[in-house]
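Margin note from the TA: students keep mixing up input and output lines. Inputs are the sequences; the output is the structure of the whole complex. Example:
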Amino acid sequence: MLSMIRTIWYVFLHMFHRRVTVQYPDEQPYLAPRYRGRIILSRDPDGGERCVACYLCAAACPVDCIALQATEDSTGRRYPEFFRINFSRCIFCGFCEEACPTYAIQLTPDFEMSEYQRPNLVYEKEDLLISGPGKYPGYNFWRVSGVQIGGKDKGEAENEGRPVDLHSLLP
Amino acid sequence: MTSPYPIVTMIVILAAALTLAAGLIWVERRLLALWQDRYGPNRVGPFGLLQVLADMIKIFFKEDWIPPFADKAVFIVAPAVILVTVLMSFAVVPFAPGIIISDLNVGLLFVLGMSSLGVYSVVLAGWASENKYALLGGVRAAAQMMSYEVFMGLALMGVVLLAGSFNLTSIVTAQRHVWFVVPQFIGFVLFLIAGVAETRRLPFDLPEAESELIAGFHSEYSGMKFGMFFVGEYLGVILISCLITILFFGGWLGPVLPPIVWFLIKMMFFICFFILLRAALPRPRFDQLMSWGWKVMLPLALANLLVTGAVALVWSS
Amino acid sequence: MNMATVYVDNRAYEMDEKQNLLEGCLRLGMDLPYFCWHPAMGSVGACRQCAVKQFRDEKDERGRIVMACMTPAAAGTRISIRDPEAVEFRKAVIEGLMLNHPHDCPVCDEGGECHLQDMTVMTGHDYRRYTFEKRTFRNQYLGPFLNHEMNRCIQCYRCVRFYREYAGGNDLNAFALRNIVFFGRDRDGVLENEFAGNLVEVCPTGVFTDATLKRHYTRKWDMEMAPSVCVHCGLGCNITAAGRYGTLRRLVNRYNGEVNGYFLCDRGRFGYEFVNSERRIRQPLIEGKAVSAEAALARLGELTSGRVIGVGSPRATLESNFALRAMVGADRFFAGISGTEARLLKLMLEVLRGPARTPSLREIEASDAVFILGEDVTNVAPRMALSLRQSVRQQPMEIAERLHIPVWMDHAVREAVQEKKGPLFTASVSATRLDDIAAGTYRGAPDDLARLGFAVAHALNSEAPAPAGLPESARDFVKEAAEALKAAKRPLIVSGASLASAAIIEAAANVAWALAGSMLAFTATESNSMGLAMMEAPALDAAQAAHADTIIILENDLFRRLPEAEQFLERFRHVVVVDYLENATTAKAELVLPAAPFAEADGTLVNSEGRAQRFFQALPPPAPVKESWRWLGSWDKLDDIVEALARAIPPLAAVTRAAPPASFRMSGAKVPRQPHRYSGRTAMLANISVHEPKPPADPDSPLAFSMEGNPDQPPGALQPFFWTPGWNSIQAVNKFQEEIAGPLRGGDPGVRILEAGEGTPRFFEDIPAAFEPRAEEWLVVPLHHIFGSEELSRHAPAVSQLAPPPYIALNPEDAARFGDEAEMLGQRFPLKRLAELPRGVAGVPAGVPPFAGLEFPMWSRILQAP
């Protein structure tokens, strides 16, 4: 009984506390660089598309709002033929970013995505792809990975030896 | 002391009560926000006051939907019952000398009777909805209101004993020297708690209990029928606040300011207190609610009545 | 099976004595990592991954590390999987294997169904400590079916063991030495073996991946999968068809202990792309113009009001054939095959109802003496050739048994057996791919092959008639073959109709009947040849005589059936075709209805063994495409038509048991076609509409086009894919079997509807005369090709790349008078010199236009090309 009265009193005292509400849009809130807002696809430092269409973001997505199709250019570099995010379903959990092995998919500090028409919230690759590397400036998956693509032959990735000469018997 | 222009008084009181009830929606949201360090509705009109208007427009234009499985006639009647019974109670409330519709000599009994009738609304709504959550809400409401009504009436008998009248005006005038809250403090506390339970306000909103019963007895209601329950609830809050003011805090009595202002100040204070309760207290379990009512409140009310009666007997002899 | 009590981590378990500990543990559902062991290929102990600790007895606390796959599950064995030292050992082994593994899982086609990934996770290795350079290799071009990415190799040797020892190929090998062992060919080139595609599943990681999948790559978890049956020959291998975004993405093997086991042929695995072909019919067509389904049905109603006949098909399901039969009437329904083929099929069916039992592929694998009469099995029914190749290991296995070497100890068995092979005799018109393991081969014209068969039968049982005047060259063969067959415990005779010779079939029947307890396997060229034969409808030549205004042709290109198809079709005023690919027949049709191919249809097929197997939709057919039986009948559900069919045709009564009915539920839920990680549901169609459509209903099967449903193991016939926690690759199948490499839990799918009869039939007496070459004419026989002879797989780009162009094959001596080209039937063809081909016989590629519709065998003139 006493604790209830105390509770009532404490709640009453909140009348004199500062209000925490941010008066958006009159007042713009501070968004940290790692804020989980609108999703983008970044490019690697060389300007190439970072996404290698591995489907991990799609698999990680709890609302299944990412759909893509992998394809390859003539040199064997893999990229998404289409990449679609249905933002009307997205819950901005950031699992896709966690899952991405190439830092391609990133969440940005932008949440102002209101639309009057739901179809406008379906973003295709052209809408998602930005021109820079986003939060991770240095990384390039293709430099590390052991597959051959245009401009990078076998054995030219980081930490790789020259391709083995199979006809040599030298120890 | 009945008003010389009963029709005018009637219309004025009806309009005032309904406007106040609607305004309370805004008041409650703003106050709750205040106590939760927020702003509440502050965008529509000055201080968000027109939010009420916007909500009203919305609720009036909603589809009047009756679920196909519902018991149609009862479903429609139920919300009307609560509004009517609460509004009827206002007929005997003396706001100030002369501002009263009917100065009934059994005014207090009338009020208690009307609030008992109000239970039907909730029970019938729960029944007619043909929905298990609604039915559970209705059953809870019946049990809760019956239990709390018993000691609500008993708690007031102390006041009646002291005033020697069921007439609300007489009760107010009997407090010329000392407010009944002083001799009847236990009665006041009991009535306050019973009043909260009677209006199904938090923390005693078990018939609705969103987290368990969706919306309890009015789960299936929408549009203006839901609106009637909503307005009925706020009218109930006003009514109970009026009664507390009249029965324990000397009604319109007070220095300097005109009587009606005193009355409104006291009434608003209790309305705000009701909202504060909502902001502060969690909902009890239903079995806790019931055992509280029967095992604590009822004996207390009886003891209070016994002591008051004994004291009054000794005093008068 | 002798069970032995084995203690694993101090708990007693029952294991089969004949198995090794790895098999025992896996059978009991324990997770023990492995790489080099394969249930079909045994153990070699190469990868050191399945290490466990073995203890002498209860008191032994030190124990020693042994390889579970190399240790028999002897009674009283005490091992520990969880022992810290064993755990550490396995982790260290995988760390070693991963030293050179490239950082490319995201772009690897194996990712998500990679045994190496699974095992790495299982052992807990998660960080590469080794900081020196990774060894790299250059890849090879291996043909249109397989990609090669050698950097991913972990040197488990499974590929060469499968390719060389199991499948009998010799152009894939391990090269170089030390830590630079390379698996590939000596130079770039198409892998020659017909079963090379199995490397996709045999390789535990992504060295060999499906090149056709790469063109429309989808992860395993994203595919909508359903149990299906291969339609590219008569064996009915079980497959898992997988699709996404409305197209069929790939096929993988679906284990069926009795049929295909762990392996498929390349035609079956890569022929699926015809489903996505440009030539698919996706709209009803009236006079070549697309119309609505309603308009098409209205026209169908008009056209069928008069006199109608129906032509069924050996590549259409029982249900579709029956729907047509029910529509036009049993007396106006004709099997869509030539008279010759129909007679041969009927003959085979009659023979198989005699005392010789038709074996499943598992039984073929277990047979210990084989006589192949007239068939080039590798090219007609490829998967059977792989089973036959295993059969020659049966007899020499006795050597290993004498030495007490368990069957699964593969390397030791091979060392003990050396090059010894069981008896397998082939008699064919030309060289076959099984000749390398044959104890005896014989070449002859079809009639000579039949005479050889009759002679073998006579040698086995003197009551069987003997051909007169058998050439000297054949006598030794006959004697050896007869002796080998007589000495065998499980002798097997293989024959078929691919040379279109009734005498060969009769001869094969005589051999089988002459030898009590022998099995007789016939090949069938099409997926439902046997089922159609069981419907006992008259053939196309009977249809010639039928009077009708309208002909309805079901999933059949008559130009591949009749030499004079054009004239045949002209006899009808209206031609209606229900099919899924444009062909010469659909071009002649007034009304074409778009049928659903196997991946979009439900139905039942009867394979050459006489096993009825149900397949289910992997993809919902895109409206207005629907199953032929839906176009032709008014059945609401598959079960209704199956029941009607079972009632109407008594020999097919058992097909209702081929798979559980649509009402089958597990704990009240359907079986989900999609894995629980299926992605993109709310985005894949969002570009069309953001309102997600309801998943398509499936009234025909207990499977759902959804990821919701009961994730438990359904009966084998409904198993949409093999996956269990921790086992994402196809190796998960271990957890679905009653025994390792045994039947699936609840029995292997399919129901046998053809069983051997009682009594002794009368031997066939009609022995043909010996073949006499003619002066200016050649006996033209069809030479089958695994890639190219079959109608549907020809439309798959990868298969069509390997299909031969039309040619004429002649014995070099016959060909001496021609140049590089010769003329036949008024056209010029390149000339191929086949030393093995008898003189006077010409071979042409079967099923390859313009030879597709010819009636074989035929005599034809071959002229000097002008």
